[in-house]
Amino acid sequence: MKYRRLGKTQMRVSVIGIGTWQLGGEWGKTFEQTEVDAMLAKATELGVNLIDTAECYGDHLSERLIGQAVKGRRDKWIIATKFGHGFKPGFDREMLFEPAQVRRQLEDSLKALQTDYVDLYQFHSGTDKFFDTPGLWEMLQEQVKAGKVRHLGISISSKFSTSYQVDKASAVEAQAIQVVYNRIERKPEQQLFDSCMRQDLGVLARVPLAGGFLSGKYSKDAVFADSDVRSV
Questions:
Q1: Strand 202-206 and strand 174-180: pairing?
Q2: What pLDDT is recorded for position 211?
C-alpha cells in the first residue's frame, strides 16, 4: 500500500480508502455486522487506514457498523465523517447546517463511532449559502480545540458551484477537500486543483469509480432495484 500526506493535516493516509455509503442501506443491500467486521479486517491486512462515512448514511447506521468493527483498534484508522444532512428515506435529506444542529450531529456521530474524536469532519454537499451559515465554522473550530475533531474538511457536491468553497477553505481552517473526481468527471482538474495546491489542501476523490460504473461490473443495460440509489 502507498501512503500520502493529506495536505496540512499531516496525516498519512492510504491512497485507497473505504467509502461506506453502501453500509447505510441505500444501495440495495442490508449489511450485517459480521460482514463489515470482515471487510475492515481485510482492509487492515492490505494496509488501508482511511474510512469515509457520513451521519446521513442510514441515519448514523454506517457509523454504528464502523464503530463496532473498529472497537479496540481505533488508533489503526483515520476516520472521516460528515455533517449537514438529516437522513430521510428515499434518498432524501434534510439540510441541517445551523451551529446547534451540527453540534448535535457531531455528538451523535461520536457516539455511533464509539470514539472520542473524528480525524476529519467535513461540510457535506451544501450550497455556498449554507457554507456561510453564521457561527458555523467558529463552532467547529471550538470542537477542534476541545479535541473532538482533529481536522476540518469540505466534501463538495457536483450539483453546486464549488470554487467558492475551495477558495475559502483556508479562511475557515479546512485542511482537506473531497470532490467528485474520476475518469468520467474531470472538471476539478481545471476548476479546483490549482487552488488546492496553492493552499496545500489534501484532496480525497469522491465516487472514484463513478458509482461502480468504472469497475467493469456493469453494462449500459444494467438494471438496479428501486431501493438502490443507482436506479434514480
A1: parallel
A2: 77
